[in-house]
Each structure stands twice: as structure tokens, then as C-alpha cells.
Design a protein that fits this description.
The chain has 270 residues and is an alpha+beta fold. It has a domain at 191-270. It contains 6 helices and 15 strands. A hairpin with a 4-residue loop joins strand 8 and strand 9 (200-204). The chain is globular, with a radius of gyration of 21 Å.
Length: 270
């Protein structure tokens, strides 16, 4: 999906909205917390830790996304209208433009580049219409190409070339490019889709390799350790190990089957 707003400078929008926030919003009147943002090295051991046999590059890309995310945090200035005590410096002023008529296989603004937010919108839409297999296929392709670009270029980018594994435009962009190696990896490659309100976690198992995650967050303050053993075929029932710090229902789906596992605080399954 390309931009549909004609040549609007976001700096002007930001200036206008910031002035209105300063005059009208209650948010600038909140006390500004001057506590320094957390450092990645300090908090890494509290983050979800994925494992995926044979995909070390993807896991390295996952951790790089978190490192960039924490590295980009800054304390905002007084009275600029931010709700959060931190802002993300990877979002810079840019220009929205109409679609360019000439597709460019090298991507760039706005000639066919691959963008993390729009890809994620597509995946969520496919989930809503029951096209989970296609969503998994697209997700794996997206994550693997972002990881391949990371291996070559050493970081994550604002967008990507549509026909090669190459990051484009702004580097160190986490920002929304944290979505593929973190959110898409968990939700659509691993297949973990939580519904905290219903106290359920769907695990749509499609990978054959051994995989899982430690410290997977579920609601406020709760975590799970999850592991799926290697399988020989999509039809093979997944062998799941799970441990939770809260009560919930784990629904495990695979090619031609489904099972429900009740998890209780502090109790390991199976």
C-alpha cells in the first residue's frame, strides 16, 4: 500500500498538533518523568527469548530489533504533547506523496518498497478471513528477508527492496521495523496469538523445526515458557512443553488436529 496523501509535510502537521496539544490537551500537564530510559543490556534478561532450530540469523535479528528499540528511546521535551515518557527517534520528518507510476524493483520512496506496517495489516486481514496458511507463508518470507538483509547490512531499515533482501532508506529503524523480527515472528511464524481477556493462547503450529520462547508475556506481569519439539510432517501432533505464571487455556492447532491444554500458575505441562 502506497501513500495517498499529496505532498503534505509531516513537520507542519507535527508543529500544528503540538501547538494544539500544548493549549488543549491534559497530557502536557502530566508530570514529566526524568528517569533515564531503560538500557537494552539491563533489560534483555527480562525480554521474551525465542528459540528456532537452524535459524540463528533470524534470532540475532530479533535481538537487534530490541537493541535498536531501546537505543532509540529519548526523554521528550516539556509540553510537546507526548503521552509516553519516552519518544522514539527513529521516526523522522518525511513527506507523504502520491503513488509513483513506475515500479522500481529496488524499492525506495514510493516505488514498490516493502513496509513492515502494511505487511502486518495484510497478515491480520488474512487471519480474519481464515487464510492462516497463506499468512504463515507470507510471514516466513518477510521475516527471512529482513533477517537476510540484517546479516548483510548489520541493522534494520525503514523499508526494504521488493525483489531482493536489502534494507532501504533510514537505517536503525525500530520504529515499525521491529514488527517483523518480533511481532510477526511470534504471531505468524511461530503462530502464537494471545487473547488475554479470554485467558486463552492459540498456538497455530506450522513449523517442523524445534522452536519455542522463554518469558513469553501474557497480560500484566504473567509469563510463559513454551517449547515445541521437532516434527517430521505437518500432520504429526506437536509435542508441547509449557510452564506459566498464571492460569490460562493453551489451544494447540496443527494441520489436521487441535488439542486444549489447561495451564495453571506454577504447574509445568505435560
Amino acid at each position: 500500500m502506497q501513500r495517498i496523501v499529496k505532498t503534505v509535510d509531516l513537520y507542519d502537521i507535527a508543529t500544528f498538533t503540538a501547538n494544539r496539544w500544548a493549549e488543549e490537551s491534559v497530557f502536557p500537564r502530566k508530570p514529566l518523568d526524568r528517569t533515564p530510559p531503560p538500557k537494552f543490556a539491563e533489560i534483555r534478561e527480562r525480554l521474551p527469548a525465542p528459540q528456532w532450530e537452524g535459524h540463528a540469523d533470524t534470532i540475532a535479528c530479533y535481538w537487534k530489533a530490541w537493541e535498536l528499540a531501546f537505543g532509540n528511546l529519548r526523554i521528550p521535551e516539556e509540553n510537546i504533547g507526548f503521552v509516553s515518557p519516552y519518544i522514539d527517534t527513529s521516526f523522522n520528518g518525511c513527506i507523504f506523496m502520491w503513488d509513483h507510476p513506475d515500479y522500481n524493483p529496488d524499492g525506495g520512496y514510493w516505488n514498490g518498497a516493502v513496509w513492515a506496517p502494511t505487511n502486518y495489516m495484510v497478515l491480520r486481514g488474512l487471519t480474519k478471513v481464515g487464510q492462516d496458511e497463506l499468512a504463515h507463508e507470507i510471514a516466513c518470507n518477510h521475516v527471512e528477508n529482513v533477517a537476510a538483509a540484517f546479516v548483510k547490512q548489520g541493522t534494520l531499515f525503514e523499508n526494504y527492496a521488493p525483489e531482493t533482501a536489502e534494507g532501504k532508506c533510514t537505517p536503525n529503524f525500530v520504529g515499525w521495523t521491529g514488527v517483523p523480527p518480533i511481532t510477526v515472528l511470534f504471531e505468524y511464524v511461530f503462530g502464537l496469538r494471545p487473547d488475554v481477556g479470554a485467558r486463552t493462547l492459540l498456538w497455530d503450529v506450522r513449523l517442523l523445526e524445534e522452536h519455542g520462547v522463554q518469558r513469553y508475556p501474557f497480560g500484566k506481569g504473567a509469563e510463559l515458557d513454551l517449547h515445541c519439539a521437532q516434527r517430521q510432517s505437518p500432520d504429526e501432533e506437536p509435542k508441547i512443553q509449557a510452564n506459566a505464571t498464571t492460569d490460562l487455556t493453551l489451544i494447540v492447532k496443527w494441520a489436521h488436529g487441535e488439542k486444549t491444554i489447561k495451564l495453571y500458575d506454577g504447574e509445568a505441562r505435560p
